[in-house]
Amino acid sequence: MAKLEKNLRKTYGMGPYPADTRLYVESRPEPLQPYYRSLFIEGERNAVLNFNRLGLAAMELGYLDHAEWAFDRSIDKIEAIFADNDQAKAAKSKFQAESVKEYKGEPYERAMAYYYRGLLYLARDDYENARAMFRSGEYQDTVSEAEDFQADFALLNYLDGWALQCQGRSGDESYAKAAEFREGLTAPAPDHNMLFVTELGAAPVKFGDGQYKEILKFRPDQQFGETSAQPIVVNADSGVVHASPAAYVVEDIYFQASTRGGRPVDGILEGKAQFKETTAAVGNAMNTAGTVTALAGLYGGNSDTALVGAGIALIGGLFGAASEAAKPEADTRQWDNLPHFVSVATDKAPGNGYVYGAEFSGTGAQIPEMQSAAMVAGGDACTVVWTRSRSATAVGESSQVRALTGTKCVNNRKPSSAWMLPSAPGLTLKRRVRSWEPSDEKTLETVCGCSVGSSRVQRDDDWQCKCSEGC
Question: What predicted TM-score, i.e. pTM, was given to this entire model?
Answer without folding.
Answer: 0.74
